[in-house]
Amino acid sequence: MDAAKYNIEENVMKTLNVVAAIIKKDNKILATKRGYGEFTDMWEFPGGKIENNETKEEAIIREIKEELDCVIEPTKFALDLEYQYPTFYLKMSCFEAIIKEGTPKLIEHNDAKWLTKQELDSINWIPADIQIIDYLKETMRD
């Protein structure tokens, strides 16, 4: 018997369930530049994978503590998005948030910057995060 023929799992594309933080301060949002992986040196909204038995809000608070060493407070659910990458399928829940404690430190990223609505198109975003940019263009004040 051909084992590969019956291994259906092998042919199923991996789905990643993640969260992202749209961290706001003084009518600007925080963009972070990836320092690792497939999208190194592209910009993104910080966040990461949801762990077992963790709510999305708990996941985003934990991820930002791990990635930026600061404590955030999710203030509003922003949007859910899905994006098909060549090697995986992404499901991402995005939350607007504010920093409650600390100042962002670059632990997993190699740069960060605060952007106004007018500056959103000035950097090279990872593909899925373009949907968040579209959301911000509709909802951010000038």
From TrEMBL:
One of its GO terms (biological process) is DNA repair. Its cofactor is Mg(2+). Its EC number is 3.6.1.55. It comes from Methanobrevibacter gottschalkii DSM 11977. Keywords: DNA damage, DNA repair, DNA replication, Hydrolase, Magnesium, Metal-binding, Mutator protein. The lineage of its organism: Archaea, Methanobacteriati, Methanobacteriota, Methanomada group, Methanobacteria. This is 8-oxo-dGTP diphosphatase. Residues 13-138 form the Nudix hydrolase domain. PROSITE patterns: NUDIX (PS51462). SUPFAM superfamilies: Nudix.
